[in-house]
Amino acid sequence: MVRMDAHQHYWRIERGDYGWITSDIRALYRDFSPDDLKPILDKHHMDGSIVVQAAPTLEETDYLLSLAAADETILGVVGYLDLNDPHCISQYEACKKHPKYVGFRIMIQDMPDAYQVLEPRFVENLQYFEKEDVPVDLLVVSHQLEPLIQLIQKVPQLRGVIDHMAKPRIAEGIMQPWKKQIAELAAFPKLYCKLSGMVTEADHQRWTKDQFVPYVRTIVEQFGSDRVMFGSDWPVCLLAADYDAVVEVLLHALPENWRAEAHARCFGENAKWFYKL
Q1: DSSP secondary-structure letter at 174?
Q2: Which end of the chain lies in a sparser environment, N or C, as judged by fewer CB atoms within 10 Å?
Q3: Is 87 exposed, middle or buried (0-12, 13-18, 19+ CB in 10 A)?
Q4: How many helices (H) and strands (E) does the chain have?
């Protein structure tokens, strides 16, 4: 049995990759490295983590792979890839030579128009990765789920995972149309969902554990215990909660009748299988 955090980040500010991390975001405006996370992973009996890109550059992916080569707690790296780039397949081939490269993330969240994912080149490139059974993270906000559904209909066998439960409107307590659209996506049997990034979608100062229960239960009901995975989203979670609180939020929200095997799948085994570790 492996126990892991399926979604967290490292960065070094001076690299200049992270335009979204500015000096006024005090909790995040500093370097975060494996040495910072290791004591926390140990405390929670984690064997390691999946490190996910946090910048839209291939250079940052190379940086994360260099960290992975020197640190055994990094079990895999999810890199960046732009599917509108005509060279994206060769860029992927270069990255996958690294033994800890496990896939890439599509940053739909940052697109000015999420329907860009339906453009022919984007779809054709994603169909290539569907055929190759490459793990693909999908970073999307709840109001972008309709174009995502249309995209998945074109790549129904994609080995994909929705990050952060598709960022529902937790702070406002709004469930629809997110709940209906999640059910549509869960019907695709190779699509997974990360139980991550929740606290930052709530009021950062005044959230309560009960707020997250209907959202987590919706995901678990639709995807089952075989297609969900825990991710801390550390250090981004520090905007609203520390690592301990993130774990507590999820444990509070998971079904009370879950057995030990379901918890083991959520906290590591599913991620191990999904990322082909």
Answers
A1: -
A2: N
A3: exposed
A4: 10, 8
Phi and psi, residue 165, nearest 5°: 55, 25
Helix (H, G, I), strand (E, B) or coil at 240: coil
Residue listed under structure tokens 């892991």: 4
Quote the mean pLDDT of the chain.
97
CB under 8 Å to 187, separation ≥6 — which residues? Answer: none
In contact, 211 and 247? CB cutoff 8 Å? no
Which tokens is 36 given?
């910072």
The CATH number of the domain covering residues in 4-274: 3.20.20.140
110-152 confidence digits (pLDDT tens) = 999 999 999 999 999 999 999 999 999 999 999 999 999 999 9
SS3 230: strand
Could you report how far apart the first and last alpha carbons of the chain are, in Å? 12
Q: What is the pLDDT of residues 28-40, one digit of tens each?
A: 999 999 999 999 9
- Residue 245 CA to chain centroid, in angstroms? 18
CA distances (Å), 128 to each of 31, 44, 45, 93, 162, in order?
36, 38, 37, 12, 19
Between CA 117 and CA 129 the distance in angstroms is: 14
